[in-house]
Amino acid sequence: MDFLVAIVVATVAAGTPLALAALGELVAEKSGVLNLGVEGMMLAGAVAGFAAAATTGNLWLGVACGVVAGIALSFVFAVAVVTLQANQVATGLALAIFGGGLSAFAGQPFVSRSIDGIRAAPLPLLGEIPVLGPLAFSFDPLVYVSLALFGAVAWFLWRTRAGLVLRAVGESPEVAHEVGYPVARIRYAATLFGGAMAGLAGAYLSLAYTPLWVEGLTAGRGWIALALVVFATWRPARVLAGAYLFGGVTVLQFHAQGFGVEVPSQLLSALPYIATIGVLVIISRDAAMVRLNAPASLGKPFHAGD
Amino acid sequence: MRPRSSFRVVRFAAAAALGLALAAGAQAQEPLKIGLVYVSPVGDAGWTYQHDLARKAIEQKFGNKVQVKYVESVAEGADSERVIRELAQSGHKLIFATSFGYMNPTIKVAKGFPNVAFEHATGYKTDRNVAIYNARFYEGRYLAGVVAGKQTRSNVLGYVAAFPIPEVLQGINAFTRGARSVNPKAEVKVIWTNSWYDPGKEREAAMTLISQGADVLTHHTDSTATVKAADEKAVYAIGYHSDMSKFGPKAHLTASTHDWTNYYLETTQRVLDGKWKSGAVWGGIKDGYVKLAPMNPVVSKETQDLVKKLEGEIVAGKLHPYAGPVKDNAGKERVPAGKTMTDDEMQKMDYYVEGVQGKLPK
Q1: Could you give the CA distance from residue A263 to residue A135 in angstroms, rounded to a whole number?
Q2: Closest CA to B84 of B62, B60, B66, B110
Q3: Mutate to test the interface with B, among A97, A112, A212, A263 (most CBs of B within 10 A)
Q4: Which CATH number do you get for residue A60?
Q5: What's the distance, CA A241 to chain centroid?
Q6: What is the CATH number of the domain that holds B295?
Q7: Chain centroid to CA B287: how far?
Q8: Residue B62 forms contact with A (CB below 8 Å)
Q9: ipTM of the predicted structure?
Q10: Using alpha carbons only, what angle is made at residue A238 by residues A233 and A242, rounded to the nearest 5 degrees?
Q11: A219: which of B53, B269, B273, B282 lies 20 to 30 Å off by Cα?
């Protein structure tokens, strides 16, 4: 029983940064902006968060700085693709590389510095319930934040007028513009939210998951988050489930190894990508499914004058 | 991207230094230019950090007789070839290539610079002007295993490892044999991360081992994540590469570290004297290449004395971590009693010894 609990707890922790980054990207994509620079924004968030926490000793200030760094990078991206109408794919890739280099440079003085990270804290009373306590009420605070953000995103996109407008912009910016909605401003907001979430995901990695900074700390998790959005066919609940699934793969594989079970670990590492390709194949065969969920104008720039 | 930009800086620095040297005039004897190539940033602990300590020792000892330059974060493969070539072209007469993956680029570049001495760490190819050097890390692992075997209560030891290559297996097996020499009930669980450097995975692997009952961990990966995880979960850990005590002051029992200072100083002296020759060096505790970091006070005096005694026996050649009988964990005898494993056999190691759980991934 104990090790089952350990697996679940570790899975949630491993899935949380993926869920955060992917939820942010989901909102950006729903507005029609494809930002491939998630990895770069996560790294920026991770290094900014760690640097702030290591310098001031305040972990929550670190989290805030991580979010701000993610926003800053996504702002550069938004200026390029929304205002200047640059190609989103190329700009996103450039952002991923830029974020990687920038974070490595800025992080030089902090490489393998040691801080006390954000620790898991069992909630009073609830955390003491056998099995359920460690299973549901003993995570670090950011895990609960990620769940709240998941609820907020799902509610916002499908239960609010503003969410409807955002989705409308992603479906058909022309129509939204005709009706009088500020397409560019909405896309800015969605992109910046995506940046904030990626920054938060990065800060989670450097402050809670592995409280340290090293170059390339995210180790490809930003790319997995991108794949996750497609895998989840742009649905927040599936994003969350997918994040825990992809996060759980590594954890399960390690437990299997510890018990002496032979597992093809390289294959399991490739699983998120294989699953995503599988989903892509399935949804592109069924045009109706694509139309239901994939934002129709994803990746296309919009000129107000056209 | 990064190696290129940081290299540019180095090149400017080299150009500037050359300018200064010319300005200073020809009367002073020109300093020996030494270049080092690192695979990662220097940081505060780890493989590259240990090489950089030796670089500082060179600068301290030889002062203005040498001019030392290093390039960090150089990816193995094509990037490293360019960096090594540039160092040779800009007049560096002694070049340390400090990562296994620099082997072929070093050999290739060396052919074009017969008057430059190349030193490659942990490889197996030499040439007229390419020497190799390595350390018997397994000797330190054996002693670390003794500490772990004495310290464990659960008799489960956890090992976070990167790739199943001989160097890593030598460490795992020596650690296991050390632990079982003082605690025959000790078993070692190994988790492979398939990455030299992924703190997230290393931490996850460490947490998994702890949840499966391991109460002393060690690792053969490059970050400090294992030691940190152990500290958080209030179990013990043994560091690798560097003294990692500041990353887990309570957990850190000791660390199996390497120290290249002696080798780098001797090599530099030889080049200065014009007596450098190619060769292959595999030094251990005796040569000062492998050391244990200071012990945590929780390790009993008795254990500390025992480790000291065993260390002395290794130096004296009386104790060898792979003295027979050596059985693998399927029960097959690999070295009969009375014999000792040869260096060649060690370098081809592809099995777990008795006491390691599980099967080696193929």
Answers
A1: 26
A2: B110
A3: A112
A4: 1.10.3470
A5: 13
A6: 3.40.50.2300
A7: 14
A8: no
A9: 0.75
A10: 105
A11: B53
